[in-house]
Design a protein that fits this description.
The chain is mainly alpha-helical and 97 residues long. It has two domains: 44 residues, Arc Repressor Mutant, subunit A; 45 residues, no CATH class. It has four helices and two strands. The chain has a two-stranded antiparallel ribbon. The longest helix has 23 residues. The chain is flat and about 45 Å long.
């Protein structure tokens, strides 16, 4: 993923993405980073992948186990609720809030 793609995906300014990538690169968490918009493809540093995968699993596994306990119908309702929440969060704010 390039720096521009990362900024677009996160919905942040390219300059903000550049600062974040610089910090992660200096910390050894990502590789292929440059701080300009012609960055090489960004990826998780191989030496850090296992630790990052463990951290991500510790956050996602409980949700997976919880969803497995729901019926197919209830999982569908949950997904629809998430879609509604996503649209609400992306909707323009009324009254400047």
């Amino acid at each position: 993923m390039t720096l521009s793609e990362l900024a677009d995906r996160l919905g942040i300014a390219p300059a903000t993405a550049s600062v974040m990538v610089g910090q992660l690169s200096r910390g050894g968490l990502i590789s292929g980073a440059r701080t300009n918009m012609t960055a090489d493809a960004l990826s998780i540093a191989p030496a850090r992948r296992r630790a990052i995968d463990r951290w991500l699993s510790s956050r996602t596994d409980p949700m997976g186990r919880t969803l497995e306990q729901l019926s197919a119908r209830d999982r569908g309702v949950f997904v629809e609720a998430l879609k509604l929440l996503d649209r609400e969060l992306k909707a323009p704010k009324e009254g400047g809030r």
